[in-house]
Amino acid sequence: MATIEKRPRRREALLDVVPLVRGIDERGIGIHRLLAEFLLHPVDRFTNLLDLAGEITLFLFVNQLLTGVILALFYRPTTTEAFSSLQTMSYVVPAGQWIRGLHVYGASFMVASVFIHMCRVFWYGGYKKPRELTWVMGVILLLCTLALSFTGYLLPWNQEAYWATIVGTQIPGYTPFIGSWVVSLMRGGTDLSGATITRFYAVHMLIFPGILIGALTLHLALVIRQGVFFLTEEYAG
């Protein structure tokens, strides 16, 4: 028993050698314990690659954030300059085509990994008590991921993006009573225009990432607190 107690203390001591953590902790903020719980909590051995679907999704989200920030430095959300700015990014900026490719293909992989992760959790019954809130946060993350993928699809402002967005924004128009209002809200008018691309860009860069980061933070906190369902004694029993 003494050996088991020494291991977490030894692992937590690793954070003491980080000057930033030590400096913040000396000022009474108490970040040491928070980081130790988040980074050094014990995890049972994974059984197959599907167990890592959540971690893969998190990695892809970080990729989307970093590459998205770089793209935002060169992208101009107007009908006359959107496509040309991405062409400049791809063919003039050093490694620009790689960065854009990581962002475009990363979005598709992220949608797939979120879906696989949610199907796996559902299969194991991870939505049941006491993990209902964790499941709800996961559903919000899935919806945010789909919304980010949809709003980002228009931003290149080429023929494929234009007509795909026309079709995508027409679907809510069939909602009784509020359909036309929803379409007008999404497009910024009756047709796709400069207002649409500006609106999609703002939503894609600010609103949905903010919601996703908040939901992800709570989701990770709950997973760390409650443990991974299919790796716990609760599931084994």
Helix content: over 70%
Instruction: Provide mean pLDDT, rounded.
Output: 85
CATH superfamily of the largest domain: Cytochrome Bc1 Complex, Chain C
Return the CATH class of the largest domain.
Mainly Alpha
Strand content: under 5%
Could you name the ranges where pLDDT drops below 50 across 5 or more consecutive residues?
A: 1-7
Structure commentary:
The protein has 237 residues and is an all-alpha fold. The chain has two domains: 1-42, no CATH class; 43-236, Cytochrome Bc1 Complex, Chain C. Helix content is 70%, strand content 0%. The chain has helices at residues 2-12, 19-25, 31-39, 53-72, 82-91, 96-123, 132-154, 159-170, 179-187, 194-226, 233-236. Helix 5 (82-91) crosses helix 6 (96-123). The radius of gyration is 22 Å and the shape is globular.
In brief, what are we looking at here?
With 237 residues, the protein is mainly alpha-helical.
